[in-house]
Amino acid sequence: KMTQQMRDLQLAQARKPPGPSSPNAAKRLYRNLSGKFRVNYTSFDEGSLVGRGEKEKLRKSYLFQSNAALFEAVELQDLDRVQEMLKHYSPEELDLNTPNSEGLLPLDVAIMTNNAPIARALLQAGAKESPHFVSLESRSLHLSTLVREAEQRVNELMAQVVNEAPNADCSEKEKQLKAWEWRFRLYKRMKAGFEHARVPDAPSSVHLSVASSTSLQVTFWEPLSVNSAVVTKYKVEWSCSPTFSPLLGEAVIDKLKDLHFTIQGLVSGTAYHVRVSAYNMKGWGPPQASTPPFAIPSNWREYDGRAPRRRGQAEALDHLLGQVKTVHQHCICHEPCKNQPQSRKHSVSKSLKHLFHPGSKFLKTLKRGLYLTAIFYKDDNILVTHEDQIPVVEIDDTYSCLLMQDFLWLTKVSCMWDEILWLRQCVTVSQSSCSCILQTRFKMLLAISQMQGLLGIQDLGQVFFEPIKDKQGNILIVTLKEVKTNQTFESVRWVPICKLQSGRKSVSSPEEPTALDMLLISLQDKLAYHQRSSHALSPGLYLGYLKLCSAVDQIRVLVPEQLPNILCHVKIRSNPNISREEWEWLQKMASVEEPVPTEPETDRSQNPLFQELQVAIKELMTLVNIPLQEAKDFRLYSQEVLDFGDQVSFLLLLPPSDDVCTAPGQNNPYTPHSGFLTLPLQIFELGEER
Question: How far apart are CA 669 and CA 558, in angstroms?
């Protein structure tokens, strides 16, 4: 019989109920629970329960039943039910790694019945093997005990059923007999699965790459063989010797959702050999050496010892801004009082009148001038005034032409919404020069303060990359901000966007719509642009395409519509780091003015970066509609790798020097496919920073 020690252990834990009395009972149990698996506990009405204690008791009851049902679903090899329970319950709620009364875990049953799909689903959820099986002998002995005990129980019940006269007790014993016969067959199948299993083969592939100057990344794939038992963990080993003696370190990976591992804390410039082996219930299989056989932790900056471009810049700018504020506060508090008392008093008085004048409200119509509108949205709703109008305030009613430099200045102000009062004071002090530019910008700051005061919101969001202009002489500057939480405001309210668009009565003709009508018509496009401009790239190394076009007052950059805060790009690989050896190769290629690699070359076929660049360049040229033949005249920017944090980096692909920036009137022979737009360079730089 099962050892008394194991029985005592299971009784002490008292965590798992014994299996149902029959296979039919097992099926009924987890099928009847199928409706309960979909229970959303947050949907319980507190008022429908006596109290929190009863609610928690009911929840525990569901968990207790689902825990038992998980074992039954695994034993009956019901993959759909297993996946459903893993989806609706956490591993802790299922007690996924607590043995049942037979000393088994769900993963033990799955791997010993050789049910690979269920075993993989359990592994993805964090399932472990039973800690009681410390050796092959202990597992074999335990299985033999379970089989022997089940067989003995079947024989006892069979004798009782044969010898006893038909009655109620006999009927109950027949049910028990069927249940134990089913369990006897299950244990025999598990025992046979264990005995016929063998150790796993080596991982099918192990790829080694340089992650940084002190780390290597190992990516591996499961063994190709399907004849051995399911692999439940992997071991990564590393050494400075190709014989792996001595061994410098090892790591066991039992979370198999992603088969990769980063070896940290290595010495820069030292070669490391890496190998990976797989484990199943029969033990560790043979190791698989990595490709390449070794790697040297390094970073491209080590090539010439340069420091990161932005190191200390943020701190220096903060310090500089603090100094500027200190100087201006001194000027505002003292110099105006001494030198320009009348001008200062008049300026403050004028600004106060502007804020409290009855006309300092949201506008309903536009009358040939420069205006500011703020778009706040949440899901499919937008903030409007109580008159169902988008919030609009006037900047200047005599300003008939918005200079691009003033607009770009305002986009920079959008990074300092909390500093508007201070900026107004600074511009007020400088108005003695009577500069038209300063007058316009001061009015912009007044309009911003007015919008902030009327809405009760400081942060007005991101400025849309181009103002809206109509034929009536109106110019509308648009800011966009997504509201993440449920907020209520005094002077505005939420309405569905579709209701606003369908309910507005236009006062203009379709041939000459006003700026407000144009805003409503294009509102969805502007919201989509705003959402896309905040998306981030997944970690990796990218190849970007730099293409500019110039106008009289600005330079614009080509970007994809789906990610307008990033250059046109394709992903080269998931590892963002460029090693010193890779950078040396790129420098060598640039020094001899070799064309970018578009065709395979035999002598370079062993260079992984060369192969990755070939694929990326072909994909990028197709994306921007440039014949691959023309790419031979392109060049890789070899001065630096553009690092955006620690997880994203870019190599730049440049057209010939004469074609990097298309001048006004110059013919551009290569027109990208749809899905691209051009942004003012300053707008692109701000979006990139965000």
Answer: 15
Give the number of other CB atoms < 10 A from CB of residue 219: 18
pLDDT above 90 as % of the chain = 40
Query: What type of residue is 373?
Result: T
How far apart are alpha carbons 106 and 94 in whole angstroms? Answer: 10
* 301 and 308 Cβ atoms separated by less than 8 Å: yes
Which residue, among 654, 426, 396, has the nearest Cα to 544 in the 3D structure? 654
For 680-683, which contacts have Cβ atoms below 8 Å and span 24 or more sequence positions? Answer: 680/404, 680/408, 680/465, 680/466, 680/554, 680/555, 680/556, 681/548, 681/554, 681/555, 681/556, 681/557, 682/408, 682/411, 682/412, 682/554, 683/408, 683/411, 683/463, 683/465
DSSP string, 254-271: ---SS-EEEE-SPPTT--
Sign of CA dihedral 480, 484, 490, 496: positive
What is the DSSP code (8-state) at residue 302? G
DSSP 45-96: -GGGSS-HHHHHHHHHHHHHHHHHHHHHHHHTT-HHHHHHHHHHS-HHHHTT
Kindly report the backbone phi and psi dihedral angles of residue 186, in degrees, each rounded to the nearest multiple of 5, phi listed first.
-65, -45
Condensed to tens digits (0 to 9), the pLDDT of residues 248-276 reads 999 999 888 889 999 999 999 999 999 99
Distances (CA, A) of 222 to 113, 552, 574: 20, 59, 19
Length of the chain as a residue count: 690
How far apart CA 217 and CA 262 sit, in angstroms, is: 4
The residue type at 401: C
Q: Which long-range contacts (CB under 8 A, 24 or more apart) does 46-51 make?
A: none
**What pLDDT is recorded for position 258?**
84
Structural domains of the chain, with CATH = 57-196 (1.25.40), 207-298 (2.60.40.10), 369-534 (3.90.79), 540-592+602-689 (3.90.79)
